[in-house]
Write a structure and sequence with these properties.
This protein is α+β, with helices and mostly antiparallel strands. The chain has ten helices and ten strands. It is 36% helix and 24% strand. It is a peripheral membrane protein.
Length: 329
């Protein structure tokens, strides 16, 4: 809505129109110009606002996991948070990152191809300094990484980014794994220069050092799960989970009425087939279990309880002593 004119401004405008100093056609032309909006075909908008919001929620979950992981690894104050989520051409992203940085290439089936998690060099050196016993200071000028530094950082990021798939658990079952590491973005041609990518900028604070981690997701990479990045899908999943919860009670009631076979195993022994053929009434077999030892109570083919044989009234019975541990089963 435009600015509200005062009474004096309205009078001056009407006076100018009546005297011919200002023409009404000029106002109409201004209104027409406002209706025209520029569109850059090199920056094609391929993600809806709803999908961008879903990606933001996913990576907010990812930042919480990174905060927990790096706080334990570096033993200092660490904070990760999503700064921005935008879509831009891949070429623009490549030219926006430093010439010497840590570019981690991630494969995450069933997503297509690979995507990038780029860690700013000052953040990498602060992490490296903490891992090697230092205070975690920032390096002003970074020319290159040594082989030892690359090895340490690669192992650290491989463990950290393996949890990326967990952030997508509400959308799809994804298993993320780091496949390669690059330091020079000019040698990396992941997709065509004009391909639209989603850039998630994550702010990082390690002690007194701050920087960014960029997650670059090409459109072709997340296209298999793109239809699930909508509020409509999230609502359907919520309704499906609620329906599943409501159907548990009838299933539980039916399960409680199911009949199962329970057998008390007195013991076991091994004999030859020849001895088995010559067994007669009154022959005794030595079992591999003492009479005072607890018996195994079988449910189906599984040892579930340990019991003690006895009598209940005029019937033989087994008293349950305790449940068998899982490793004993």
């Amino acid at each position: 809505m435009g600015e509200v004119l005062s009474q004096q401004e309205i009078d001056a405008l009407l006076s100018a129109l009546s005297s011919g100093d200002v023409e009404a056609d000029s106002f109409l032309a201004q209104e027409e110009e406002k209706k025209v909006r520029q569109y850059d075909f090199k920056r094609a908008v391929r993600f809806s606002k709803d999908q961008i919001r879903s990606l933001t929620r996913i990576h907010e979950h990812f930042t919480r996991m990174l905060t927990t992981f790096f706080s334990a690894q570096l033993r200092t104050y660490v904070q990760f948070s999503v700064n921005s989520v935008e879509q831009l051409p891949y070429d623009e992203f490549i030219h926006s990152i430093p010439s010497m940085t840590m570019i981690n290439l991630i494969e995450a089936p069933p997503l297509n191809g690979r995507f990038i998690i780029e860690v700013n060099p000052n953040i990498s050196y602060a992490m490296l300094d903490r891992l090697l016993g230092g205070p975690g200071v920032e390096v002003e000028k970074i020319e290159s990484f040594t082989e030892i530094e690359m090895r340490i950082l690669t192992q650290l990021y491989k463990r950290a980014f393996s949890s990326y798939g967990d952030a997508w658990e509400s959308i799809a079952e994804i298993k993320a794994e780091m496949s390669a590491v690059e330091v020079n973005p000019q040698f990396l041609q992941l997709v065509s220069p004009n391909e639209t990518v989603v850039l998630i900028s994550i702010g990082v604070t390690i002690g007194e050092v701050s920087g960014t981690i960029n997650v670059c997701l090409p459109f072709v990479t997340i296209e298999p799960v793109l239809s699930k990045l909508s509020s409509h899908y999230w609502m359907q999943e919520a309704n499906r989970r609620n329906a599943s919860e409501s159907s548990k009670e009838p299933l539980k009631a039916q399960l409680m009425n199911s009949a199962v076979e329970v057998v008390s195993l007195l013991g076991e022994t091994t004999i030859t087939f020849g001895d088995l053929l010559h067994l007669e009434v009154g022959d005794c077999l030595a079992l591999d279990q003492l009479a005072k030892e607890p018996l195994s109570v079988m449910v189906g083919e599984n040892k579930v309880f340990k019991g003690q044989v006895g009598v209940s009234g005029k019937r033989m019975a087994v008293q349950v002593l305790h449940r068998v541990k899982e490793e004993e089963q």
